[in-house]
Write a structure and sequence with these properties.
- Helix 1 crosses helix 2 (55-68).
- The protein has 3 domains: 22-188, Rossmann fold, CATH 3.40.50.300; 192-270, Helicase, Ruva Protein, domain 3 (Orthogonal Bundle); 275-341, Winged helix-like DNA-binding domain superfamily/Winged helix DNA-binding domain (Arc Repressor Mutant, subunit A).
- The chain starts with 22 loop residues before the first helix and ends with a strand.
- It has helices spanning 23-32, 55-68, 89-101, 113-122, 146-152, 166-171, 175-181, 194-208, 216-224, 230-244, 253-273, 277-289, 294-305, 312-324; strands at residues 45-48, 75-82, 131-138, 157-163, 185-188, 328-331, 338-341.
- The strands form 2 sheets. Strands 2-3-4-1-5 form a 5-stranded parallel sheet, with helices on both faces. A two-stranded antiparallel sheet has the order 6-7.
- A hairpin with a 6-residue loop joins strand 6 and strand 7.
- Helix content is 48%, strand content 11%.
- It contains 14 helices and 7 strands.
- With 344 residues, the chain is α/β, with parallel strands linked by helices.
- Bound molecules: adenosine-5'-triphosphate and magnesium ion.
- Adenosine-5'-triphosphate binds next to helix 2 and helix 10.
Length: 344
């Protein structure tokens, strides 16, 4: 049934032969970075769109392309940080320095943040037009925004900011940094159509499964239930194939119908495992007391965490991201907003 499990694994970067669509968007992104060829950093570039539409995939594709080189005149170095797991000002700066300067002389926690920034500054030559850097901040909407000031000031450095909502993210920033970022270009990815998802699935079937184990109609069925999200579609295919493995010759409709909620649940468990201790506490509180208002959530969280508690603003951003990751649901707007745990 399954020939190559990694082809059905949404966490591994697919081989170029399995990437379809997004040609125009990749072109748009490449154009946004074309200015690097003039030896100057470009304005921040935003890559936005809902979950599973290929943002992380495209960020990697465009930076790969730039590293491999558009011309001999330009050398591009990349640092790529996922802010969902690396978000504090220090952690992000450390990670960027580790990737761009090299880790050997940097010591986590003992090299001060300002030294890291000095190191980043001193290893670039702002007068050398042939050497440029790009810092990719994926899931930037949960980053400690202070780090954006630091990074935006580095010489020969351009930013690629990947998030689900550029606008709402910008709205929560200090006006000084907001004005610097709002000049940036935005490349927006729309949810995939069911037909586009079928095409993505066909490639996974071709490279990952035995021949003739799933029909076109069944791929359409999976695609229709994936809400434009390629991760959901690929995970549903994997779930159905795993269930069929060793049990039947082909993937049946019943297995697909069962795989749809199971894939959602598995993705939710994966997201739950990525929560940091603070977010875990927030999730547990909503689970125990929900539905809760943002104010009550913050109070209960502060009761539990004491002086270690993060600000209301951080809580709000974490809760929003948990809604995005299908862990919580938000009901009502403004003063009547409440969070509850998402159920299948
Ligand atoms: N056009 C495509 N062709 C092939 N595979 C794709 C395509 N778009 C997305 N995928 C696959 O779907 C999954 C989700 O894509 P990706 O991780 O890039 O989404 P995302 O927009 O970054 O989502 P999130 O906001 O949740 O991080 C990945 O496994 C990716 O390889
Ligand atoms: Mg992503």
């Amino acid at each position: 049934m399954i020939r190559r499990p990694e082809v059905l694994d949404h966490t591994t970067t697919p081989d170029a032969s399995m990437i379809v669509h997004r040609r125009d968007e990749l072109q748009q992104l490449a154009r946004a970075f074309q200015g690097l060829e003039n030896g100057r950093p470009v304005n921040p570039v935003f890559l936005t769109g809902p979950s599973g539409v290929g943002k992380s995939l495209l960020a990697e594709a465009v930076t790969d392309r730039l590293v491999r080189g558009t011309s001999d005149e330009l050398a591009v170095d990349i640092a790529s940080v996922n802010c969902w797991t690396t978000r504090s000002r220090y952690e992000v700066t450390f990670e960027v320095a580790r990737q761009l300067v090299g880790g050997a002389r940097l010591h986590h926690d003992s090299t001060p943040r300002l030294d890291l920034l000095d190191r980043l500054q001193s290893t670039t030559d702002r007068h050398d037009p042939t050497s440029q850097r790009i810092v990719v901040l994926d899931e930037v909407d949960v980053v400690d925004t202070d780090v954006l000031y630091d990074l935006a000031d580095l010489p020969s450095t351009s930013l690629l900011l990947v998030s689900n909502e550029a606008r709402s993210f910008l709205g929560s920033l200090d006006p000084r940094i907001e004005s610097r970022l709002s000049v940036g270009q935005e490349v927006r990815l729309e949810p995939y159509t069911a037909d586009e998802l079928v095409r993505i699935l066909e490639k996974r079937v071709e490279y990952g499964l035995e021949h003739d184990v799933i029909s076109q109609r069944q791929l359409e069925r999976i695609a229709r239930h994936a809400d434009g999200d390629a991760r959901k579609a690929i995970s549903t295919l994997r779930e159905a194939a795993e269930a069929a493995q060793g049990r039947s010759q082909t993937i049946t409709n019943t297995l697909i119908d069962e795989a749809i909620p199971e894939a959602r649940e598995r993705l939710r468990q994966e997201n739950l495992a990525k929560l940091d201790p603070h977010q875990q506490v927030l999730f547990d509180i909503v689970d125990e007391y929900g539905p809760v208002s943002p104010g009550t959530l913050q109070e209960l969280y502060e009761d539990r965490m004491g002086d270690d508690a993060k600000t209301q603003r951080t809580t709000r951003r974490s809760a929003k991201k948990m809604v995005y990751y299908d862990l919580l649901v938000a009901r009502g707007e403004g003063p009547s907003r409440e969070y509850a745990v998402a159920t299948t």
